[in-house]
Amino acid sequence: MGIKKGQDLKERTKRLAVKVIALTEELPKNRAANVLIGQLIRSATSVGANYRAACRAKSRADFIAKMGIVEEEADETLYWMELFVEANLIKQENVEHLQKEYGEILAITVASIKTAKLNKNSKFNPNESRNSTPFRNPNSAFCIQERIHP
C-alpha cells in the first residue's frame, strides 16, 4: 500500500500512527492485549514524532541520533505487530499492510542515517542563515520528501 506522489514522510508517519490507533480499537480488550496495545500505540506514534524532531535537528550528529530513534521505534512497532499475530490476537492479513509500510519507513530511515554518516564531512554554505540550514529547513534533504507510487 503506497502513498500518493508528493506526500512526505512526516505526513506518512502521522497517517500510519492514526491507522495503528484505529486498528487497536478493533482488538480484543483483555489484560495482555491492553498492555500490548499501549506498547504498540507508543512506538507507532513515536516514529512520526521523532521524525519531526529529526527534521529540526541542530547538527548532523543530532539528526543521526534522532533518526536512530526513528529506526528503533519503527522496528519496535513491527515487533509489537508480530506479537499480536503470534499471540492470535489479530490475523496476519489485518496487519500486513501496516507491517509493509513500517518496513518501508525502517528502510528509508536506515538509508537516511547511512547517507548522513557518509556526508559527515561535507560543509554547509556559510552564506546561509542558521534558520535556512538543511537541519532547520523542513524541506531540506534531511527531511525526506519521499515519493512512493501506489
Verbal overview:
- The protein has 150 residues and is mostly helical.
- It has a single domain (9-119), classed as de novo design (two linked rop proteins) (Up-down Bundle), CATH 1.20.1440.
- The chain is 64% helix and 0% strand.
- It has four helices and no strands.
- The protein has helices at 9-25, 31-55, 60-86, 92-118.
Q: pLDDT under 50 segments (min length 5)?
A: 3-7, 124-139, 145-150
Number of strands: 0
The CATH homologous superfamily name equals 23S rRNA-intervening sequence
Helix content: 55-70%
CATH class: Mainly Alpha
Task: List the total number of helices.
Answer: 4
Mean pLDDT: 82
Shape: elongated
In the CATH hierarchy, the third-tier topology is known as de novo design (two linked rop proteins)
Biggest β-sheet strands, sense, barrel? none
CATH-level-2 architecture: Up-down Bundle
Strand content: under 5%
**Protein structure class:** mainly alpha
Q: How many whole angstroms does the radius of gyration measure?
A: 17 Å
What is the ordering of alpha helices and beta strands? Answer: HHHH
Pick out its properties.
de novo design (two linked rop proteins), single chain, disordered N terminus, mainly alpha, disordered C terminus, 4 helices, 150 residues
Per-chain topology:
Elements: H1 9-25, H2 31-55, H3 60-86, H4 92-118
Helix pairs in contact: 1-2, 1-4, 2-3, 3-4
